[in-house]
Design brief:
By secondary structure, this protein is mainly alpha-helical. 64% of the residues lie in helices and 5% in strands. Its main location: membrane.
Length: 112
């Protein structure tokens, strides 16, 4: 008995997946996650450093670094999920079902 998970990507997701060769998903995903983590640590370092000098904070820089970090982390995880054969959209639906107490939803799976 094997389980086949049907992949239903959104239009925006298909644009990213079609523009990159499938063999590069893991490399691109790891690179983007690494860049996002570096920016997240830089953001954290900046926040801790500004505890000594609160008047020197720059809201624009903080917002830019936070947006760039979250974008890199999100896209990196998207490509890593695609490389692993998981559909990010169905994972989000599963997380929603779990958080609202309805349990796992196995509608996307076929058994043959």
């Amino acid at each position: 008995m094997t389980c086949v998970l049907q992949h239903q990507h959104s239009c925006a997701g298909r644009v990213f997946l079609e523009s990159v060769h499938a063999e590069l998903y893991s490399d691109l995903g790891l690179l983007l996650v690494f860049l996002g983590a570096v920016l997240a640590f830089q953001f954290l370092y900046y926040e801790v450093a500004m505890l000594k000098n609160p008047s020197g904070r720059s809201l624009g820089l903080q917002v830019f670094v936070a947006l760039a970090s979250s974008s890199f982390l999100g896209l990196g995880l998207f490509f890593l999920y695609a490389w692993a054969g998981l559909c990010p959209q169905s994972l989000l639906q599963q997380a929603w079902n779990l958080s609202h107490g309805s349990g796992w939803d196995f509608r996307d799976q076929r058994y043959s």
